[in-house]
Amino acid sequence: MEQGLCSKEQCQQRWNQHALARIWRNISPATLPWKHHNKKLEFSVVSYNILSQLLMENNRYLYRNIKDEYLRADRFGMIIKELESYNADIVCMQEFDHQIRDTFATHFGKLGFENIYERKPHIPYQEKDDGCFMMYRRDKFRLIKNASLGLYKSGEKLLNKPNCAQIALFECNDGSQVCVANTHLLYNPGRGDIKLTQISLILHHIQQIVNPMQQCGGVPVIFCGDFNTCPNAPLYNLMKYGKLQYSEFSADKISGQKGSKKVTHTLAPGLWDAKSMEFHEHGLVARDDEELTECRETFRSLTQGSSYMAQAYRDLDCSKCSDLYPYKQGSISHNINFRSAYDHIDSDGRTKEVTTYIQNDARTVDYIWYSNHDITPQNCAHGHSCDPHCRSPVLVLKSTRRLLTKPELSNMGKLPNAILGSDHQALQAMFTLYSDPEMNTSGRN
Distance (Å, rounded) from C-alpha 344 to C-alpha 341? Predict the structure, then answer.
């Protein structure tokens, strides 16, 4: 049975109900122990998978119970209206078709936004029309660095899918800095090995930009996107806890998604060992093992700050770098103390939050991660010990916009519908960035 259309009055009534339900939920306020963190900037960030028109049309069977009127390209007008209502300062979108860029850029440009776009890489027989699109208010932020990542490398079996990411370093109007990343990881529930490779590459580039190994934590990070992974799944735990012993899992268990085809291979140590991998500025470069004969000191310099190879090597004994590579130990890690802006449970403490609802499948796969400060001088923004007089910027989560639950979405009508133009919900988080008015743009005294 197809979902019915609503009259103009009914649609407005449903939109009002949607707006009332998506209220702001305040987070318990944090107490800053440093008196010099007395300069603050408040801003909100939206993450939204807006459903690529081409992807939808190529997978029309997923939307067989949705009226054609709700699947036409003019649904992007509803998305523009929705985004306007959120009044955000930074908007990260996924599945953004390049054909609508001019429309969004012109419309939101008049409202004070600049934008950057990264289209998915071209791969033969896997042509994609969409990518990641980020908008930011020009009166609050100045783009000082933009890293666009096509998560594809010809001939590399773990980077053979057309996914992408973008990483932007902004200078705020108070002189502080914040890094915002946006991505859409591979969907395939059975290819956790590819997802781990993609997320490791992105994390590495984030770390190279914000330099979290510097004293007092470095630049705060916000990481948005459709990660195609469920809460508490191994990939989620890698983000949250900073480490994953991936050799304990098979590839189809990494993301926690249902509906994957049976996968028999496990992620044994040496996942990336068919050709030894070293990070370089523009991605992964294959190196033969026999070339990696440098000493332990050289290995240390190669791996400094790398998420791909950040596992401690101090207990390893082999004299050759090729045998010291920690990814052979079956684990990966990163140095950013991420926390999800959402708890994934509604305020009743029982009902699960969901970010997408296709057919009868409602789940959380979209996230806003941020580098959390636990508000003690012993553990700064990235989990490193520092001087109690640390003047590093501090990013504090203030509130999040409530997500509708599966029952509420069912009552409204499965996605997309007359109110919402995508099969995902938009996430929104409000942050306060505390900084020292005496610090320079590097965050150091």
Answer: 9
Give me the phi and psi of 211, to 5 degrees please: 50, 65
In this prediction, residues 166-189 reach a mean pLDDT of: 95
**Do you find a cis peptide bond into 416, omega within 30 degrees of 0?**
yes
Could you say which DSSP state residue 59 is in? T
Could you tell me the two tokens for 37? 């963190």
**Pairing label, strands 283-287, 113-119:** unpaired
- Give yes or no for a contact between 183 and 95, defined as CB atoms under 8 angstroms apart: no
Residue showing tokens 């590839």: 251
68-77 pLDDT per residue, tens:
999 999 999 9
Closest among 95, 82, 96, 91 to 22, alpha carbons compared: 82
Digit-coded pLDDT (tens) for 239-253:
999 888 888 888 899
What six digits make up the tokens of 326? 């920690």
Nearest partner of 225 among 130, 358, 365, 324, judged by Cα: 365
User: What is the model's pTM?
Assistant: 0.83
Task: Read off the pLDDT band of 283 (50, 70, 90).
Answer: very low
Contacts of 357 (CB under 8 A, 6+ apart): 406, 409, 414, 415, 423
Tokens standing for 8?
């103009």
Q: Per 3-state DSSP, what percentage of the chain is helix, strand, and coil (rounded to 5)?
A: 25, 30, 45
Q: β-strand 90-97 against 39-49: which pairing, if any?
A: parallel
- For 193, phi and psi rounded to 5 degrees? -65, -40
CB 391 within 8 A of CB 325: no
| Cβ neighbours, 10 Å, residue 11 | 15
Cα–Cα dist 346/352, whole Å: 6
